[in-house]
Amino acid sequence: MKSFYHYLMKYRANKKNDALGEFARAAYDDHSFPKAETDYNEISSYLEMNGHYLPSMSVFDEAWELYQSEEAVPYLQN
């Protein structure tokens, strides 16, 4: 499973005024962002203390739900 940061980077090219795109670009510029992290609580805690670039934590929650639905799918066994 790829890290949340790695997943988020696919939104960097979104248009301006797109909340996920703005979040991705700001996270990219945040050199302290926990780039290898996959744990919600760790990332959420980091953003609560350092995510001054987020207008609301709901942007992170929306991105996290997308991440979970697309990346945390268990592997199918034959």
TrEMBL record:
Family annotation (Gene3D superfamilies): YozE SAM-like
Cited InterPro entries: UPF0346, YozE_SAM-like, YozE_SAM-like_sf
Organism: Priestia koreensis
Span of domain YozE SAM-like: 3-68
Origin: domain of life: Bacteria
Protein family: Belongs to the UPF0346 family.
Entry protein name: UPF0346 protein AMD01_03515
